[in-house]
Structures are given as C-alpha cells and as structure tokens.
C-alpha cells in the first residue's frame, strides 16, 4: 500500500508541476485568465470595429475570458471602467486609450493593484506603468506619409493641407511630428493648412471643400489625411473639377484600395487593425502564461507597408 501511495503521490506531484509550468520554469497556459478590454470609443469607425473583432477572436483562441467596455469617448466612463476592472480583480487590462495623459492615474491604480496593463493602437505618455504598447510606430507612419508627398510632388514641390485625426491622441501627435520632419529640407513643399477632421468622413469632406474654395486650381497641390476617411474627399474633388489636387490617405481598407486603383488617391500607409488586436492578445497570453521574455517591451510595432498604384491591385486591404 505504501508503494502504491508513493506512486500516486509522485504522479500527483508531476501533474501539479505541469500545471504550474514545471520545475524547469517553462510557461504554463493563460487559458481561463480574466482580461478587461477598454475601448475609448467602440463606434469611432470601421477600423476600430476590425481591431476589436481581432481582439475578441484571438481571446477565444487563447482561451481568455474577455470583458469589453465601450468608453463612449467619455473620460469619466473610461476611468470608471478601469477602476471596475481593478475591483473585479482581472488578471490583465488591455486599453485602447483616447487620451495619452488623462487615464494615467487610473492606470497607475491598476498597476498598484498588481494588474499588468497593455495599450493597443493608441499609447499613453512616457512613464505610464504599462507593460507594452502594441500597434503602429506612429512617428514612422507620419514620416512615410511625408515621404509619399515628396515623391508625388517631385522637385517642383507644392502646397499641402494636412488633415489630422483626433487632437491630443498619441497617433495624431506622433504622425504629425513624423510628417513635418519628413518635409524638412524640402523647402519647395509648404503646409498651408492644418486642421483636425477627427477621423470623421463628414468633417474631412467639409474641410476639403473649404480648402478647395480657399485655394483655386494651382494653389493647392495635395491634401493628406491621417486616416482612410479621405476617399470621399477625393471622389468629390474628381467629380467637381478639382482633379488637380493629389490625395494621400492613411490606413488601407477596401475603399482606399479602390480609390488608389482608380487613380483618385495617390497612396497610403497601411496598418492592420485585426493584426494589432491579435498581437496584443498574444502578448497578454504570453505574459500571463509565464512567457514574459517573449513580450516585446516597451513597444511591439506592427508593419507599415506603403501602398500606391504600383502594388494596390495585388495587395489585399487590411479590412
């Protein structure tokens, strides 16, 4: 009986060690862990929808229990959601933050409670207690847009209007910086108008129409947007005798692909929302599963290919 009991105990010990990751420090599974996912505005646009879908699909695949909260572009709602995640004792928080600064105190409370926080697509200010950011290098994104302008306008240069996303977001700040830096040293290119369209198609179109009225043919050479909403602007311009304006988009959905192939948009910089969502969940699963060494910190940047008419027809849109 003692020998049988000892054998059973040995088997149980092996099982327990395996469940804990084993005595050699190998990673266990993150399945069953609780993750709180806060989206600052789930109804912002189809990009966010695709990104959220990627998060949910990957969480299902990893066996993570995901609670998604729509922050509705309201700061108190977002702060309350983070505090609720802390109160609920989630194992990790994934945050798509609309403001890089205002949510830091709430994130600090989560970190103080021992909950790892990850940011997705939009980041927080430096020094925020975040494990890692998953998404685009937005400075590089803006820089590549600037390089597209330089290539498109050539040695003669020209005048440019810049349509920025939601002011104060990390993407708007970094993309604008990268864009303006890319134009340094190109004295023949001048930014003559710079406004926020908040990544909203109607606002973007209104600004483009204002610019077209303010700058007659020959006085405005290009309009650049930090998102895909500019396809409607380009279609309006081509239908109203302003095909002299060159359009450069941000992101790469089916509308942008068609506009590039049709010659209404010169090019864009692609970021893949589904991939970003999936990569963020992968990082969380690795972290919670004891594979912290596999998580890229302080940032995990996803690819930013440049799409023009040369490769649009053969490059599938990101969403």
Key terms for this structure?
alpha/beta; six-stranded parallel sheet; 10 helices; 12 strands; 319 residues
Summarize this entry quickly.
It contains ten helices and twelve strands.
Can you characterise this structure?
- This protein is of the alpha/beta class.
- Helices cover 42% and strands 18% of the residues.
- The protein contains 10 helices and 12 strands.
- The protein has helices at residues 2-19, 46-62, 75-88, 104-112, 138-153, 170-183, 201-214, 231-239, 254-261, 273-288, and strands at 34-39, 65-70, 92-96, 117-120, 132-135, 158-164, 189-196, 222-225, 246-248, 267-269, 299-301, 306-308.
- α5 runs parallel beside α6 and α7 crosses α8.
- The longest helix has 18 residues, at 2-19.
- The model is unreliable at 1-27 (pLDDT under 50).
